[in-house]
Amino acid sequence: MSAEASNPAATPTPCEDSQGDGRWMSQHVRFVSECKEREPDVVFVGDSLVQLMHQFGIWRQLFSPLHCLNFGIGGDATQHVLWRLSNGELDNISPKVVVLWVGTNNHGHTAEQIAGGIMEIVQLIHNKLPNAHTLVLGVLPRGRVPNPLRERNAEVNKLVQDALSSLSHASFFNVDPGFVLSDGSISHQDMYDYLHLTAHGYQAVCEPLHAQIKSLLEKPAEN
Amino acid sequence: MSGDDLNPAAVPQPVEDRQGDGRWMSQHTRFMQECKDGEPEVLFVGDSMVQLMKQYEIWKEMFSPLHALNFGLAGDTTCNVLWRLQNGELENIRPKVVVLWVGTNNHDHTAEQVAGGIVAIAQLLTNRLPKAKIVVLGLLPRGEQPNPLREKNAAVNRLLRSWLPRLGQTLFLDVSNEFIHSDGTISSQDMFDYLHLTPAGYNTLAKPLSDLLLQILEETPEERRASLV
């Protein structure tokens, strides 16, 4: 796709410690240790939508039994995830499935750049884990009413879905159950701040996702 | 005490919509609507530490039954909370207790300024709700290892401990010590990103807070209401 040098969303970049407590690096280091200690069948990687999933009961109910690791970090954009996966978070493990959910925090990037960043991550995962299948989740709509970020996210999904259609080691999965209502609004019952999911919102996302992951795990190993 | 007009942490300020989806204003508008719809006995106000509490089971178990409203907004500083409270989030409600938890996001301000901002909010609350008790929660430590923000938050707490008693009607609850292990680290079992609490982390805070709220609510005589609940 687009040349990495000209796409900031596809250039591995660690997060700067602008606040002063080194939390991003602490989380990354913890994830790298988990790779040494655990043997996951599934690894979830992405931003706060991944990270918060781990805090709700639904994780223990649906995903713990599948031997999953959760490498989500709040605020991460594609270039941050790319850096983390290039610097230890895919080492010493051989999961059958990698679930990738990122893109909504790429502020200042175009839909094309964000899609390019996502595809760069997909390629990296395939290089490091040739036997794994990458499930790329669609970026969700956001904001209480229609706004430019909804359009951007929808465009990202369209571009990514197209690019993935020709690959056998990765696929696109739409986890939006219809969060946008007929009047164009998103309910705070689904997204308490019109971006992050409530327990109810996660229920709607995770049940189909769980079924999809299970079917991937049950397939014979990819070449 | 710091003069409010010289303290940037005590200047009311809304959050600009930089991302483009207007979410901060949407949440503020929703909170104003909740003021019209509800008759809360307890009002929680602050940043993501308050907001996230409502997403876990603990809220339904311990705080909903107290008829509590939650006006937490992730990322908010003392300036943002001050603005929200002055611009509609105290209209038409007469809670008996307000729980205030804010300050950890005031990155541009010193500990003195942050404490001054928190006191300014507590002052506003006692002015608007003269019969209410204000429970100020201490800022929790953050970061996996000791770091300057831990020192800053601890300094804010020390200042609050000495300044808040002058306001009257105000109580201070600080559970910071519960989170730091003997080796100085904070566990991801308590704070999944070394800032935000896990459900287990909230349990540590919820018990003493709930006990305190129940105590306050039992002490406060029921006001006669015109309409039946």
Automatic annotation (TrEMBL), chain A:
Residues 44-204 form the SGNH hydrolase-type esterase domain. It is found in: Cytoplasm. Residues 1-22 are annotated as: Disordered. It comes from the Eukaryota. Its EC number is 3.1.1.47. It is an enzyme of class 3 (hydrolase). Pfam families: Lipase_GDSL_2 (PF13472). Alpha1 catalytic subunit of the cytosolic type I platelet-activating factor (PAF) acetylhydrolase (PAF-AH (I)) heterotetrameric enzyme that catalyzes the hydrolyze of the acetyl group at the sn-2 position of PAF and its analogs and modulates the action of PAF. The activity and substrate specificity of PAF-AH (I) are affected by its subunit composition. Belongs to the 'GDSL' lipolytic enzyme family. Platelet-activating factor acetylhydrolase IB beta/gamma subunits subfamily. Forms a catalytic dimer which is either homodimer (alpha1/alpha1 homodimer) or heterodimer with PAFAH1B2 (alpha1/alpha2 heterodimer). Component of the cytosolic (PAF-AH (I)) heterotetrameric enzyme, which is composed of PAFAH1B1 (beta), PAFAH1B2 (alpha2) and PAFAH1B3 (alpha1) subunits. The catalytic activity of the enzyme resides in the alpha1 (PAFAH1B3) and alpha2 (PAFAH1B2) subunits, whereas the beta subunit (PAFAH1B1) has regulatory activity. Trimer formation is not essential for the catalytic activity. Interacts with VLDLR; this interaction may modulate the Reelin pathway. PANTHER family: PLATELET-ACTIVATING FACTOR ACETYLHYDROLASE, PLATELET-ACTIVATING FACTOR ACETYLHYDROLASE IB SUBUNIT ALPHA1. This is Platelet-activating factor acetylhydrolase IB subunit alpha1.
Automatic annotation (TrEMBL), chain B:
The keyword Lipid metabolism applies. It is an enzyme of class 3 (hydrolase). Keywords: Cytoplasm, Hydrolase, Lipid degradation, Lipid metabolism. This is Platelet-activating factor acetylhydrolase IB subunit alpha2. Residues 1-22 are annotated as: Disordered. Belongs to the 'GDSL' lipolytic enzyme family. Platelet-activating factor acetylhydrolase IB beta/gamma subunits subfamily. InterPro entries: SGNH_hydro (IPR013830), SGNH_hydro_sf (IPR036514). It is found in: Cytoplasm. Its main location: cytoplasm. It catalyses: a 1-O-alkyl-2-acetyl-sn-glycero-3-phosphocholine + H2O = a 1-O-alkyl-sn-glycero-3-phosphocholine + acetate + H(+); 1-O-hexadecyl-2-acetyl-sn-glycero-3-phosphocholine + H2O = 1-O-hexadecyl-sn-glycero-3-phosphocholine + acetate + H(+); 1-O-hexadecyl-2-acetyl-sn-glycero-3-phosphate + H2O = 1-O-hexadecyl-sn-glycero-3-phosphate + acetate + H(+); 1-O-hexadecyl-2-acetyl-sn-glycero-3-phosphoethanolamine + H2O = 1-O-hexadecyl-sn-glycero-3-phosphoethanolamine + acetate + H(+).
